[in-house]
Amino acid sequence: MATDYDAPRKQDDELKEDSIEELQQTRRSDSQSGSVDEDEAAAAESFELPGADLSNEELSVVVLPAQEDEFTCGSCFLVRHRSQIAEDRNGAKYCIECVG
User: Fold this and answer.
1) How far apart are CA 45 and CA 41, in angstroms?
2) Of residues 75 and 15, more confidently modeled
3) Is residue 65 situated within a structural domain?
């Protein structure tokens, strides 16, 4: 229930009268609110997300080769800066995260 903080405050007598009336009204609306029964699968099919159909789209990305100061980890296969080399085993370099 929204509260209007700018509205003038009511006296105690007014609060008692209003609260009884509000309780009776909310009980009526609560008993009627559970009457909606909708199939979830049917509801999900009716929703269409904006831009969801990407079947005809092509992704174009420029892939750069590893630079002189980079290496590819032999465990996680991520390209990392050479300052993250932790170990060099049989020519394969491993990063700090994989070794540590």
Assistant:
1) 6
2) 75
3) no
Residue-wise pLDDT tens digits, 10-48: 666 666 666 677 777 776 655 555 555 567 777 777 776
| Structural contact between residues 76 and 97, judged by C-beta atoms closer than 8 angstroms | yes
How many domains is the chain built from?
Answer: 1
Q: Which residue has the tokens 């969801």?
A: 52
pLDDT tens digits for range 51-68? 667 777 788 999 888 899
DSSP annotation of 84: G
> What's the domain range around 82?
70-99
Burial 19-47 (b: 16+ CB within 10 A, else e): eeeeeeeeeeeeeeeeeeeeeeeeeeeee
Asked if residue 76 belongs to a domain, the reply is yes
Alpha helix ranges (H) inside 1-100: 12-33, 40-46, 96-99
Distances (CA, A) of 38 to 5, 34, 44, 58: 37, 11, 11, 37
